Amino acid sequence: MRLKGLLCKIVILGTGLLTSGASVADTQVNIVGLFSNKAVLIINGGKPKTLSVGQASDGVKLIAADSQAATLQVEGSIKRLSMGQAASVMGKSSSGSSSAVLYADAQGHFVSDCQINGASLKFILDTGATTVAMNSGDAKFANIDYKRGEPVQVSTANGIVTAYRVTIANLKIGGITLSQVDASVLEGGSPSVVLLGMSALNRLDMKREDIALTLTKKY
Question: What Pfam families does UniProt report for this protein, alphabetically (predicted)?
């Protein structure tokens, strides 16, 4: 078993739903300027808009802002974003297809949020990982009794380590829900985020356009 890319620092750019040929209730927001109690936003690819705290536009309300980050309410969801970051609040496509969009960061990594057994965790897409992989703390948070899994030796960027083979009952990314997903749990704090490996990615179609990567459930 091979696991790569055990990263200690990532940037979350958010997720969104996108289904080819179908309408999607999806609000995308990019942060292009930050000031005290003000932020400059690009909403759904439109022209930059400056909002003061308390103001709203196109379903996006500015809750707080300073030179470091802005807190937004996007279609009812709270998002905290820094300069250059983006978020997309997901909606259901008219065709009912299960899909999600990930956005690459400056290093080209696709990172976002997921739910494992109902627990919210951060992940990074990693085609070099044989399975979904996580550290033991994240496994406990997701109510996975990993010590009952089969112990195996795996090769990582940090060398050979012991991992436990487990099965994730429910993995959700945006509008995609996967059941019974093979995973590996590594003792300790590495990887720092969940690695979305091939045991999940093999069940998804992936299509990239510029910095956007569309995931669509195959089965």
Answer: gag-asp_proteas
Mean per-residue pLDDT, 90-107? 66
Residue keyed to tokens 């958010």: 14
Which tokens go with 212?
Answer: 């956007």
Nearest Cα residue to 30 out of 67, 74, 91: 74
In the Cβ-directed half-sphere of 30, how many Cα atoms lie within 13 Å? 12
Q: Phi/psi at 58 (nearest 5 deg)?
A: 50, 45
Residue 70 forms part of a structural domain: yes
How far apart, in whole angstroms, are the C-alpha atoms of residue 11 and residue 82?
Answer: 10
Using CA atoms in the order 155, 161, 166, 170, what is the torsion angle rounded to 10 degrees? -70
Whether 193 maps to a domain, the answer reads no
Is the pLDDT at 108 greater than 50? The verdict is yes
Does 55 have pLDDT greater than 60? Answer: yes
Task: Give the long-range contacts of residues 34-40, CB within 8 A, separation 24 or more.
Answer: 34/65, 34/66, 34/67, 34/68, 34/69, 34/70, 34/82, 34/83, 35/65, 35/66, 35/67, 36/65, 36/66, 36/67, 37/64, 37/65, 37/66, 38/62, 38/65, 39/65, 39/70, 39/72
Average pLDDT, the chain: 82
